[in-house]
Amino acid sequence: MKKVININFQGTIVPIEESSYELLQQYIESLRLYFANEEGRDEIINDIESRISELFQERLKSGSTCITDDDVNAIIKNMGRPADFEEAEKGENTDSNDEKSDNSKKEKSESFQGNWNWKGKRLYRDENNKVLGGVCSGIAAYFGIDPVIVRILFLISGIGILAYILLWLFVPGSNMLENGARKRLYRNPDGKIIGGVCSGIGSYFDINPWLPRFIFLIPFISFFFRWGHFGPLTFPNFLSFSFSPGSFIVYIILWLVIPEAITTSEKLEMKGEKVDMNSIKNSVLKEMKEVGERMGKMGQEMGEHVGKMGMEAGNFAKEKTANFNKEVYTSTHRTSGILGKIITTIFKIVMYFILGCIALAVIIALFSIVIMAIGLFPLKDFVLTDGWQSMFAWGTLLFFIAVPVIGIITFIIRRFAHVKRSNKLMRYSFIGLWIIGIVCFISLIVSIGRDFKSSSSGNIEYIPLSDPNVKRLEVMPLNNNNYSRMNNWFRLEPFATFGMDNDTAFISNFRIRIKKSATDSFQVSEISWCNGRTRRDADTLAALINFNISQNDSLLMMDRAIAINTTDKFRNQYVEVTIAVPVGHYIKINKNFDRRSHVKFPWVWNDNYWYYDDNDEYFEFRSGVLYIMKEDGLYTIDGERSDRRNEGGNNSKRKRTDINDNNYRYTPNSKIDSLKAEQEKQIQKMQAALDSAKDAREKELNKLKDSLNRAKEEINKKIEKLNKGTAWYDNSSRSDFSEKFSFMSYI
Amino acid sequence: MNIDNTASQMRKGVLEFCILSIIKLGEAYPSDIIDMMKAANLNILEGTLYPLLTRLKNAEFLTYRWVESNSGPPRKYFSLTEKGAKFYKELETTWLELAGAVETITSKNNQLNNHKPE
Q1: Highest-scoring range by mean pLDDT, A161-170, A252-261, A378-387, A677-686
Q2: Is the complex ipTM more than 0.85?
């Protein structure tokens, strides 16, 4: 059973089966393409159509009720397909009247001369439906699928680009490709829930539309179950379906890219009826390609001119030379054609390569912005207050960041998929949403800025030390499980140490400063800074900062981070620890206190440049090095000053005298200088030796003291052990720890 | 170089001459031309005839007039122009020369071949 439609064909009404009509349309379109460069193209097509119409009439007169597939096929067989014309035209001489059109046609057909077989399936590049080189549409035609799908696959896979270029180079092109029964991917307006994407996919793959719907929904369901849980595994996999914004964005992009099936023929295409693919021909030629073609044509015309000149010359020399000239003519012609083609191809490849690189860079940049934004988003609870700020943050993420990203990606894919439907409405809504995004972004910044406006007064808090007269002090991290894993997960560079739990973030916003003590005992003080809406707010928040410092014999146990929770929020909390070291005492900052970058919002209009006015001198130091405090500064046990600047000055001086040493004949003064320097060096050395001897003695003393301490501790421990059996484990581990430490430091 | 290619090239060369010759007999409709050629055992595809006719017409060798038809749309009947007649004459002489030359050469060849077995 077949549907019969009436068509007006060359002025007569023809009842024809729908499938036959499509066959006919396809055939005529292929002819139109074949004669595209012919001067009288429309006339030829018209003549052929009239003839076909006449044949139809004959058929109808002989008693048929309508035109069937067989009729059309018989007529096509008589008329011949373009491929058959190829066969007939092959080797046609070039000196007919319409050389130009003939030649260009020939050039085009060159690529599939030879073993072109209409019936057999071969992989060609489809030059009718191409976007770049026709590779994707050729593959689509070969497998009978939608070129959009092949293109998206090529775009997504990284090696696609290389494979594309290789295929472009090796697969012959053809403008004769006719696509048989083939489906196209459309959005289905009849079965839609949101945009009809899923039901369109369903009808394309012949599956229940609920299957794609479910696949799209899985991440949403899981997202709501695991709200706020951004593990290290789920976060970067932007496109993976374990991350629901990914599937959301994929859906939106598909929505925008896939055309909606509106007309009946589109709906038929969607369901996989046989369609005339050539009618959906792309007409948008990229400017670059045109330029390339023009270059090729120029080459051709040049060749023609040379050839024509040869012809003229040949006319003078009459018969004998005429043949020779003709040969020259044809040969120059051929070479110029090939040359033009090569130039065109190279030009094309280079241009597309550059364009591709730019497009790729843009896409990567956009994706990284999105990933960055999404990666930082879980931190918002620590910064933003609920209500308006939170809303602005969502608005910023969705409209200010996501909208342009989706817009640009959509634009690129639409270019690739050749969607030509006017999208004025879409463009305006994109711009509108983005403006909303800008408003959100500005409001967010202003609102946050106000929260950071004032800074706290910064009161000094002295830490009571259990034994301030200890000979040496080493700063050790508090053994706290909370941020032992801090180092190995969140390391986004500007936020170098942002350890995070579900409701607590750890930031390493602290600094250790060393100064000379005025007394002969250690002194540790702490200043907490904070920002807030008002000074009072900032002060209350600063008071909430809990930064633990405690002394345990020669160890100063200290937190390595400030804990921030979601109720108190992050307001540039910052702790400054000052250790005053008495002269002749030792100080060492553990390696774990390597300086890390601080997390800070530097707003232009807030006065958060923490500044504490005192006249003390603070010394530079490195972590993991033992220093001794002397009258004039901080020194290592090797006798070098802790701040390299002075040392560097000495070095350069020494170097200068060394150079002068080499040329002493010419500058006698330098000899004296060098002698002086030598003397200084000698003195320094002696001083160092003295120092080290002193150090050694002190060390010895320290050791004795420590071992005494340890003995004391052990006794204490034993007493404690006897007293409290339960607390035993804790203490022993701690003393083990300190033992290990002192052992190491003395070796 | 295969036989089909060479043969089609040969046919190609004389195609225009044949078409013009048929039209010279009197006004002709494309399907008449096809039929006559078929009768003379020179098979060409109808699809290739139309572009050829259009080209010849554009070169002003042919002209046509519309004739109403009782079966289907009006038909184009082609006839030779003066220029076309001249062109035909030239082609005719060329053809006769060529045919004569080919005849002489191939007949000699045939004679040789015929003598060989003896």
Answers
A1: A677-686
A2: no
Q: What helix, strand, coil percent values describe chain B, rounded to 5?
A: 70, 10, 20
Which residue in A508, A602, A519, A501 sits closest to A547, CA to CA?
Answer: A508
The angle at the Cα of A64, spanning A59 to A68, to the nearest 5 degrees, equals 80
- Tell me if A91 sits within 8 A of B52, measured CB to CB: no
Per the model's pLDDT, the better-predicted residue between A291 and A586 turns out to be: A586
Q: Which two tokens stand for residue A677?
A: 């320097």
Q: Closest Cα to residue A409, out of A271, A239, A226?
A: A239
Contact A11 B76 (CB under 8 A): no
For the segment A337-363, what is each residue's pLDDT rounded down to a tens digit?
667 677 777 777 777 777 777 777 777
Angle between helices B3-25 and B82-115 (to 10 degrees): 140
- CB of A583 closer than 8 Å to CB of A613: no
Q: Which of A90, A129, A94, A130 is nearest to A112 (CA)?
A: A90
**What does the alpha-carbon distance between residue A531 and residue A703 come to, in Å, rounded to a whole number?**
45
> Which amino acid belongs to residue A375?
G
Contact A186, A200 (CB under 8 A): yes
End-to-end CA, chain A = 98
Q: Which residues of A touch B59 (CB under 8 A)?
A: 97
Q: What are phi and psi of A488, to 5 degrees?
A: -100, 10
DSSP letter for each residue of A369-413: HHHHHHHHGGGHHHHPPTTHHHHHHHHIIIIIIIHHHHHHHHHHH
Per-residue pLDDT of A273-317, as tens digits, reads 433 334 333 333 333 454 455 556 656 665 666 666 556 555 555
Min Cα–Cα distance to chain B from A13, Å? 10
The kind and range of the H/E element at A50 are helix A41-61
CB contact under 8 A, B58 and A81: no
φ, ψ of residue A401 in degrees (nearest 5): -105, -50
C-alpha span between A25 and A22 (Å, rounded): 5
Instruction: For residue A621, give the nearest of A670, A661, A579 by alpha carbon.
Output: A579
- How many Cβ atoms sit within 10 Å of the Cβ of residue A297? 14
Q: Is the pLDDT of residue A675 over 80?
A: no
- pTM across the whole model: 0.38
* b/e per residue A130-154 (b: at least 16 CB within 10 A): bbbbbbbbbbbbbeebbbbbbbbeb
Q: Which residues of B touch A54 (CB under 8 A)?
A: 31, 69, 71-73, 75
Of A24-28, A457-461, A619-623, the range with the highest mean pLDDT is: A24-28
DSSP state letter for A460? E
Q: Element (H or E) spanning A550, and its range?
A: strand A549-552
Q: Count Cβ atoms within 10 A of the Cβ of residue B20 and give its class: 0-12 exposed, 13-18 middle, 19 or more buried.
A: buried
Question: What is the phi/psi pair of residue B73, to 5°?
Answer: -70, 165
- For the CA atoms of A556, A560, A566, A571, the dihedral, rounded to the nearest 10 degrees, stands at 90
C-alpha distance from B45 to closest chain A C-alpha (Å):
5
C-alpha distances in angstroms, B66 versus A318, B34, B63, B77, B79?
Answer: 43, 19, 10, 6, 12
